[in-house]
Task: structure prediction
Amino acid sequence: MKIAVDAMGGDKAPAEIIKGAVLAVQKYPCEIILVGDEKKISEELEAETCGKIFPITIRHASEVIEMGEHPADAVRNKKDSSIVVATKMVKDSECDAVLSAGSTGAAVAAAQLILKRIHGIGRPAIATPIPTPRGITLLLDSGANVDSKPEHLIQSGIMGSLYAEHVLKIKNPSVALLNIGEEETKGNEQAKETYKLLKTLQTINFAGNAEGRDIPRGKFDVVVCDGFVGNVVLKFGEGLALTIMQLLTEELTANGGAKLLGRKLIAETFRNMSKRLDVSENGGAPLLGVNGCCVISHGSSNAKEICSAIGVTCDYVNSNVFYRIKNAL
Amino acid sequence: MKIAVDAMGGDKAPAEIIKGAVLAVQKYPCEIILVGDEKKISEELEAETCGKIFPITIRHASEVIEMGEHPADAVRNKKDSSIVVATKMVKDSECDAVLSAGSTGAAVAAAQLILKRIHGIGRPAIATPIPTPRGITLLLDSGANVDSKPEHLIQSGIMGSLYAEHVLKIKNPSVALLNIGEEETKGNEQAKETYKLLKTLQTINFAGNAEGRDIPRGKFDVVVCDGFVGNVVLKFGEGLALTIMQLLTEELTANGGAKLLGRKLIAETFRNMSKRLDVSENGGAPLLGVNGCCVISHGSSNAKEICSAIGVTCDYVNSNVFYRIKNAL
Result:
């Protein structure tokens, strides 16, 4: 298996991306092609590998798409950017998948423009695995598209169900629609129309409406929503988790708990907590619905998270979910 | 000041509602009319007051609107329900405000059907105060209406700004639009159109787009969104906070921290944390944009939270925000 990794994408690129790749090839049976500035990458790679041979090669790409750029315009104009070159390698069957921690918008635009959508899919969707006390809840779409129509949400339901079953290994995964109440009659026009369509769908295990609180509780295996709502919810959760940690530290310091626990134990508790809450510990989020395997990682990913995302990418390719989606539509 | 309190609305009604009312009249300069089943209320009230005289009276209402009922239908059909009777008392100028912890949908429907909307307001909005480390962030709409149009979001911005300034006492409050990115070009059609309109508005301090993570961080004083997104975000936050507490307890138990801290200190820490995160500690959420003061409290409210919501209701009435909104439009 060959994976094209956008070595220039992410807050800590290229150093952490390269470190993550080196970790991954020792853990997973895959070959990695690091795409980006050859000189920078080879320097980092040499420093990291110390002459040892790993199944890692470099593909030069002279440009980088920055976070602030308009995704589609940047993909069209920067033909030699790392994400465009990496995505083209999938299109040309040089690689089985592409992974990027760079601009999500650019990765989605590159996939849509270069790989194109699977026939029958109106909009691709990013499926983000959210850790919960009961396991993973897959939320999609978490930001690939806004202004989704009911049929796009149905397609997300089908794709999410296949991913949950074959990659996350959840048997007969429950699929719910994110809404403002449990009853069928609740919600905006989009939600009400989508509910009707999901209810008649025989190929998934539709479990009704999910309310916001059902996501962190892990009540359903797959939760479907449009990309605007999904993105807002995920970022809100990120911010809230950080705020709670901050308040908790203040409380423990104020009431003397911090002294009793000691710095080490507090640090350990918080580290473990963060691990259990941190999406990136569960690796990358696949962009489902495009003609090829494309996985997106959080912009702040460090080496360990990149390694984990490469593991997710391997599972995704091996699961044949991409072909299963093609056949389901 | 006279406040009509829906004594039958809420998970812990009527007992906790009545206890809350008794607390409130001792704390705030107001008179309370408890609306609902006279027999039940008078029994509870006597048990609570033990013969002492408080400025609390009872108005009988024979029906109750339950949580599962269709709000508008229930309001139309149950003319003698506690929320309908309480709302009518505001309409008839018998009371200055109505407070309910019952079905939010029913309270909103009663307000819209009985009090009607303020001239110039297309949709009313529930403004929920969210506690953050930097103070309160007012999120609106948090569920009164779905499928809002840009002009409704603009009106929410104006109403939220007035409420933040005159009730929350925030000088020149910053107003942001909830979106999936900071840039003006980001978001769905609704958000992009709303941004354009907010930018040209001279009467509020528009601060651009807010991302989901900016809400718990308290980056802005007022955050505007449609009721679908607001409701999902609030419920997600509620669920996530509980999940984090649960995981944290597990972590502390597993690593021996719980033993060091002791049950009492853990309980105290969590209680204080919850207080700082709990929306209900900050009292009720006003329904802005209807012809009268209507405040909504969380369904799970206990006596302390009802008391706090009555305090919010007093502040709201005293601030003249209701008249300020009328004049601003």
In short: Chain A touches chain B through 61 residues (CB under 8 Å).
